[in-house]
Amino acid sequence: MKRTATAVWNGSGKDGKGNITTQSTTLNKAQYSYKTRFEDGVGTNPEELIAAAHAGCFAMALAFGLQGAGITPDSLEVTATVTLDVSSGTPTITESHLDLKASIPGITNEKFQEFAKGAEQGCPVSRVLKAEVSLTATLA
Q1: Looking at the domain assignment, is residue 64 inside a domain?
Q2: Where do the H-state alpha helices sit in the chain?
Q3: Would strands 30-33 and 17-22 be described as parallel, antiparallel, or unpaired?
Q4: Domain total in the chain
Q5: Under 8 Å CB-to-CB from 17, ≥6 apart: which residues?
Q6: Which residues contact 59 (CB under 8 A, 6 or more apart)?
Q7: Which residues contact 43 (CB under 8 A, 6 or more apart)?
Q8: Using CA atoms, how far apart are residues 69 and 32, in angstroms rounded to an integer?
Q9: Strand partners, 83
Q10: CA dihedral 59, 101, 120, 24 (to 10 degrees)
Q11: Rounded CA gap, 54 and 70, in Å?
């Protein structure tokens, strides 16, 4: 299974602008720019999209882990905070922190922590944040 997203950028880094479209078109030419990434502009940015992907992936991984043990959560609320450090002059994503608030009837805290850790380590987005990146570049 493969999923795609396309980003189109026009202009310079600071004064240019771009848009992002996902295969499902949930994002359809969603705007992004220097201001949306480093200031307070209207639109999205790569770090926000990584955070959304990480939160969604983790919640689903935890739900599947619990399901495998015959446990059904009432709710799993996950907030992912992706940190972009710009202090070194080279912007670097340094962390994705997951904050989980869960309502799961009949589970002990010990078991809950075990399932949460398993989901954090097994979630595909957690793993891709540690993965090798590859590139094919073609000049048009």
Answers
A1: yes
A2: 34-38, 46-68, 109-122, 124-128
A3: antiparallel
A4: 2
A5: 9, 10, 11, 31, 32, 33
A6: 76, 77, 78
A7: 30, 31, 32, 33, 35, 36
A8: 42
A9: 95
A10: 30
A11: 24
Q: For residue 31, what are the domain limits? A: 1-44
Residue 3 tokens read as 């999923």
Q: For the segment 5-42, what is each residue's pLDDT rounded down to a tens digit?
A: 999 999 999 999 999 999 999 999 999 999 999 998 89
Q: Look up residue 76 and give its two tokens.
A: 């799993």
Structure tokens at 97: 């922190």
Instruction: Specify the DSSP element, H or E, that contains 17.
Output: strand 17-22
CA–CA distance, 9 with 100 (Å, rounded to integer): 35
Statement to judge: residues 71 and 93 lie in one domain: yes
- DSSP-derived secondary structure letter, 44: B
pTM: 0.91
